[in-house]
Amino acid sequence: MSAITKWKAGVTPVYSLRALARLLSYPDAALRDSVPDLQQVLVGEAAVNDGRLRGLSMLLGSLVDQDVMEVEEAYVELFDRGRATSLHLFEHVHGDSRDRGPAMIDLVKTYEQAGMLLDPDKVGGELPDYLPVVLEFISTLPAAQMRDFIGEIAHILNAVHTALIKRRSLYAHVLAAVLEIGQQAVEAVALPEEEDMDASWAEPEAFAGCSSKGQQSPNQPQPIQIVRRSASTTQRGASA
Q1: Quick one: residue 235, left, alpha or beta (phi over 0 = left, psi -120 to 50 = alpha)?
Q2: Among 43-47, 91-95, 126-130, 214-218, which stretch is predicted with the lowest mean pLDDT?
Q3: Local structure of 36: helix, strand or coil
Q4: Which pLDDT tens digit goes with each residue over 85-102?
C-alpha cells in the first residue's frame, strides 16, 4: 500500500512531518535522545510506506549506533559544505542573488499570516527557508494546503534527494518521505556540477568586475515564490 493512501483524506500527518523536520536537524544529544519517540511517531501515524519506514529506521538507528563525533561531522560535511545538499531552500533557487532577501521576507509574512511566529530559541536562530522550519510550518496546514505547499517545493526536494542518493546517504529517505506525504513523485533530476561552499564564498578576483562568482550568480534559475496557495492568491513567482 502506498504512503499516500495510508492516511485519511483531509487529515494531515502532523506528527510525521514534525518528526521528519526534527530528523533533518543537527544530530545533537537532544535529537539522539528523542530517537525512540521519533520512531514511535513514524510507525504510529503510518504516513509513509513500509519500505520508506525501514529506510528511516536505519537512519534513526545510525544516529545512536555510530560514534557521536562521526555522526555530527558527517552531518556537517553533508549539509553544510555543498549547495546541492543545502537544507536552505532559497540556496537552490536564489543562490547569492539579491532576490534572496525579499524572498525571506515574503516567507516570514506567509508564516505570520498563518499564525506561526518564528522563535529563535526553538529553531536555533535558523533562517525561515531552513527545511526543518518549513516542514514545521507545513505541518500546521490543512491537508489540501499541505499538499499544495509540498508541490510548490517538490522540485527542490527532488534535487536535494537526488544529491543525497548520489552520496548514498540515508537522509535521502527523509526527503522522499516528505514528497510522498505530499503526494508528489520521487524522481531523479539532473544536477549541475557542484562547487564546494568554501570555494563559492571565496573573495572575487581583484578588478574582475560584477561578473565575478558570488556577485551575480550566473546561470541561476529564477524560482517560484514559496508561499502558501489560497483562494485570493493567483500569482506566484516565475519558474526557470
Answers
A1: beta
A2: 214-218
A3: helix
A4: 999 998 887 566 566 778
Amino acid code (one letter) for 78 = L
pLDDT at position 122 is 54
The HSE-up count of residue 68 (CA atoms within 13 Å, CB side) is 6
All cell numbers assigned to 105:
521576507
Whether this model's pTM surpasses 0.85: no
On whether the CB atoms of residues 41 and 30 are closer than 8 A, the answer is no
Exposure string for 189-201, b = 16+ CB within 10 A, e = fewer: eeeeeeeeeeeee
DSSP three-state, residue 160: helix
Q: Give tens-digit pLDDT for 166-209.
A: 999 999 999 999 999 999 999 999 887 766 555 554 544 444 44
- Please provide the DSSP assignment of 63-104 as one string: HHHS-HHHHHHHHHHHHSSBGGG-SBHHHHHTTTSTTHHHHH
Contact residues for 101 (Cβ-Cβ < 8 A; gap 6+)? none
Q: For residues 165 and 144, is the Cβ–Cβ distance under 8 A?
A: no
CA separation, residue 239 to residues 25, 87, 235 (Å): 28, 20, 12
List C-alpha distances in Å: 189 to 160, 229, 240: 9, 25, 14
